[in-house]
Amino acid sequence: GLGLIVLGHGSLVLGAIVHGSVLRHVAGARRAVTPEYAAANVVSVCSGLLSIAAGIVSILVSHNLSRAALHWTLLSVSLLNCLLSTVCSVGLALAVALTVHSQGTHLVRGCNSSALPVDARSAIATNDCPFNTTRIYDTALALWVPSLLLAAAEAVLSGRCCLVALVFQGIGPCAHSYGKEQV
């Protein structure tokens, strides 16, 4: 539970920083940011919030082992978080792959400057493009990779919480080794 809370806060903070330092500048007045980046960022923030909720529910379950309603709540919240964190990992991997493959041109698509070279890492700030594209490219990659790792860890821990909730309900392969007396 504590691990999910810590990972969820980290994912939430990284998603907010990506939005504030990268996507805000890239979108600009035209809102020309590609949907892949916006969707990956929104799913990352939602995954962080749901991880925090799953962590809180798992801590509540650990202190109230006899309440079946909490077991079902843990199962549903952790299953949803496992799926959302997996989707978040895939989305962030897609965002990183698109950015690296296009050398940052998809990331700075909203900047319609003719002075931009093919590689966004070697571009400079111009009057048409008010932000430094090199900083945007490097910052996006530096924040997406840890976000990807956090989302993958959230998916694993949420999967474990799902298994624990199933065991508490007597469902699954490990459930037969745990009796109601042990729980």
Automatic annotation (TrEMBL):
Pfam families the UniProt entry points to: BCLP
Primary localization class, coarse: membrane
A Gene Ontology cellular-component term: membrane
Keywords: Membrane, Transmembrane, Transmembrane helix
Bilayer topology annotation: Multi-pass membrane protein
Transmembrane segments: 6-26, 38-61, 73-100
PANTHER family: KERATINOCYTE-ASSOCIATED PROTEIN 3 (PTHR31258:SF1)
Protein name from the UniProt record: KCP3 protein
Organism of this sequence: Falcunculus frontatus
